[in-house]
Amino acid sequence: MKRYLTAYFIVIMVFTGILKTSASSVEELNSRFLHFFLVGDIPAWTQTLDSLRNKSLNRETEMTLLYGEYGLIGNLIGSGKSNEAQAHLDLFETRVQKALKNQPNNGDLHAFAAAATAYRIAIQPWRAPFLSRTHNENIKKALDKGNLYGLPLVEQANSFYFRPSFVGGNKERAIEFYEKAYAFFSTNQRNHWMYFNVAAWLGQAYANQGMKSEAEVMYLKLLEEAPEFTWVRDELLPKLYEGKSYNFWSFQ
Length: 252
Description:
- The protein is mainly alpha-helical.
- The protein has two domains: 24-146; 148-239, Tetratricopeptide repeat domain (Serine Threonine Protein Phosphatase 5, Tetratricopeptide repeat).
- The chain contains eleven helices and no strands.
- Helix 1 runs parallel beside helix 3, helix 1 (2-39) packs parallel to helix 9 (193-208) and helix 5 (107-123) runs parallel beside helix 7 (150-162).
- This is Tetratricopeptide repeat-containing protein.
């Protein structure tokens, strides 16, 4: 009997240790991605993704990898590196579709699928008429499965923000969904790189709609929380100030 009890407790201890290690490794990964995002270290971000792709991952770690791929592809497209983006996009889309077969009710995965389609349109705009329906369907599924979660809200915001108005683009609606996404990440995942990413995009949406005071408040808040946030410190905030006319009499 003692032998069985001893074996039982060993199994429990080992299993508990695995869970703790897994949780702590996901937290560590998120912490690393957050640091890379704030300081703009794309090479380190890419190296971390490559190391994860060569491992057998549990669902939580795989989701961290997908978030990382999602962020990298967006960065590469924004930097004009379409060929690099395409290579990562193929891996990302394959992983998303495989995960969806096992988790068809996961709203984040449907949001990733929507993002993958949007990335393909960004790389090859001529495909927009053929892929827009798929993109919209994925966003609808994402919101149906996870309308209270951050990523589906982000993708709906992105859809409104980046589409031309004649095909449904709407900057005001985009701000509405960015604000909802920001509220989610602010409350639930403040130490995730997506919190800072969504806040920065919300600031840009404010600025581009002439809401420069709101943008400034957002940017300064982010720099108070993370002074090393180079994208805001060195690009977004100076750009805002360059086009801003101050009314010094309004200062209290």
